[in-house]
Amino acid sequence: MPPPTEPTAGEIELLGLPQPEKRSEALARVGAIVEEPRFHPHLTGRENLAIAAAARTRDAESRIDVSLARVGLTNRAGDRVKTYSLGMRQRLGIARALLSDPALLILDEPMNGLDPAGILEMRHLIRSFVDEGRTVFLSSHLLDEVERPATRSRSLTAAR
């Protein structure tokens, strides 16, 4: 494997912290789902979040119930994840991302697998994160789903 590319000039910050010097501190304030989140199917939603919380700060475990409530999974938290629909697994992925009380949420295809009512609910949920002062970076091939909840957007084009 080739060595990583080193910067030749400039500086970068993530959440106001210089990178790569404060990488761990910055990443502790980031929550993310990438594509379809994966879970242990034989465990319950709550058990999956407990495992994720154990890898985070001590406060993460205390956020499990609040995170489940935020995404509307309180009533299904005791069910095995293998019984969840794709949309429910998406919401559980967001609940997992919330365990760290993130300042930055990176959501890749959060509308994936949701029915029209679920999409509307997800839009409101994303908007509520922004209203709380969190930054939400939303990635999707469905441009309309990125533009609807956006407060600022910039079209990015790959250089050829």
What is the residue-mean pLDDT, rounded to a whole number? 88
Order of helices and strands: EEHEHHHHEHEH
Anisotropy-based shape: globular
The CATH homologous superfamily: P-loop containing nucleotide triphosphate hydrolases
Q: What would CATH call the class?
A: Alpha Beta
**Distance between the first and last residues' Cα:** 25 Å
Radius of gyration: 17 Å
- The count of β-strands is 5
Report the sheet-strand fraction.
Answer: 5-15%
Let me know the largest β-sheet.
3 strands, parallel
- Put simply, the count of helices is 7
Indicate the structural class.
alpha/beta
> Could you list the spans in which at least 5 consecutive residues all have pLDDT below 50?
155-160
Task: Give the % helix.
Answer: 25-40%
CATH topology: Rossmann fold
* Whole-number total of structural domains: 1
Query: Do you know the CATH architecture?
Result: 3-Layer(aba) Sandwich
Strand order of the largest sheet: 3-4-5
Structural overview:
Helix 4 packs across helix 5. The chain has a single domain (13-147), classed as Rossmann fold, CATH 3.40.50.300. It is globular and about 50 Å long. It is built from seven helices and five strands; from the N terminus they run E-E-H-E-H-H-H-H-E-H-E-H. The strands form two sheets. The protein has a three-stranded parallel β-sheet, covered by helices on one side. The two termini are 25 Å apart. It has 160 residues and is an alpha/beta fold.
Secondary structure: elements and pairs:
Layout lengths: L11 E3 L2 E3 L3 H5 L2 E4 L11 H10 L3 H5 L1 H7 L15 H13 L5 E5 L7 H16 L3 E5 L3 H5 L13
Parallel strand pairs: 3-4, 4-5
Antiparallel strand pairs: 1-2
